[in-house]
């Protein structure tokens, strides 16, 4: 008798094999499945072989065969890397929280993200524990909160990951700043509790913030709306106000890029009314030469 047909079945598809006369083997060129075998049981595609002779006798072999079973396991690997997306903090973000929650996602539509490869680096420190990894489809949603406060200033976070087929994702990184210290604010004029007869009052001073300059400055007079003041490159500022007669309150606020504020208030009294002399007495009057007398004056203001 002779072999009639040899067939291979892979992933639900059956293929006819033809005899290679030079090798004596039955062969076929087959296109591998389009998706990774990793998610499958055992991480392979099972292959079955069916051989039939001209008499109708049939032999089959599959992965359960004790001799050939290991040869009937087709491993298919994808070649598309996972995708990393850092959701928080965002690029160039300014935050007053020195223990910010770092959040990111790693997605992969085929073999799936290998959670053991998910790595976070803060500046030069590789984080090895404390990362929360929540499965989402074949990927993960991750978060990490530093256990120790990060210093004020710039920080760089980097995220790495691979899938189960060894494809390495393009590393994603974000630079952000932490600023927990409010800006400095020095008001050089007017002096607090100033009493003046000049209605025009110039507010001057300087401000700075090491971490998140430039600093914005507003000045508010009494119940009027606060107005923006131009801050020069050296941090100095100046704003001329028109005082109301009587008591005035000037509120100066400096705000840095992270939203931290410093406030200084100045009380200034405008008094433009001259004093009134209402009564004068000289006693005794007349007086002997060379003697002393008392002058009494009543003045109101």
UniProtKB/TrEMBL annotation:
Which residues are in the Bacterial Ig-like domain?
A: 93-180
The domain of life for this entry's organism is Bacteria
Gene3D superfamilies, sorted: Immunoglobulins
Q: Which Pfam families match?
A: Big_13, Glucodextran_B
From the Swiss-Prot or TrEMBL record, give the protein name: Bacterial Ig-like domain-containing protein
């Amino acid at each position: 008798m002779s072999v009639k047909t040899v067939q291979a079945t892979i992933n639900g598809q059956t293929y006819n094999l033809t005899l290679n006369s030079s090798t004596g083997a039955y062969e076929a060129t087959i296109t591998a499945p389009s998706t990774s075998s990793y998610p499958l049981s055992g991480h392979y595609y099972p292959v079955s072989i069916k051989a039939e002779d001209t008499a109708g006798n049939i032999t089959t072999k599959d992965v359960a065969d004790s001799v050939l079973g290991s040869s009937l396991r087709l491993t298919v690997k994808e070649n598309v890397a996972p995708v990393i997306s850092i959701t928080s903090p965002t690029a160039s973000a300014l935050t007053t929280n020195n223990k910010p929650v770092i959040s990111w996602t790693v997605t992969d539509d085929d073999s799936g993200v290998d959670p053991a490869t998910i790595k976070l680096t803060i500046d030069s420190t590789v984080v090895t524990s404390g990362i929360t990894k929540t499965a989402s489809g074949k990927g993960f949603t991750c978060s990490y909160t530093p256990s120790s406060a990060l210093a004020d200033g710039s920080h760089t976070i980097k995220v790495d990951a691979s899938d189960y087929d060894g494809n390495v994702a393009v590393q994603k990184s974000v630079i952000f700043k932490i600023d927990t210290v409010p800006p400095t604010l020095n008001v050089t004029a007017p002096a607090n509790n100033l009493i003046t007869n000049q209605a025009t009052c110039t507010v001057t001073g300087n401000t700075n913030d090491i971490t998140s300059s430039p600093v914005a400055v507003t000045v508010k007079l009494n119940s009027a709306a606060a107005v923006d003041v131009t801050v020069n490159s050296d941090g100095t500022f100046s704003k001329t106000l028109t005082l109301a007669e009587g008591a005035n309150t000037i509120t100066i606020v400096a705000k840095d890029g992270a939203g931290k504020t410093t406030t200084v208030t100045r009380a200034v009294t405008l008094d433009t009314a001259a004093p009134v002399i209402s009564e004068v007495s000289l006693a005794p009057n007349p007086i002997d030469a060379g003697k002393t007398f008392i002058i009494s004056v009543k003045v109101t203001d």
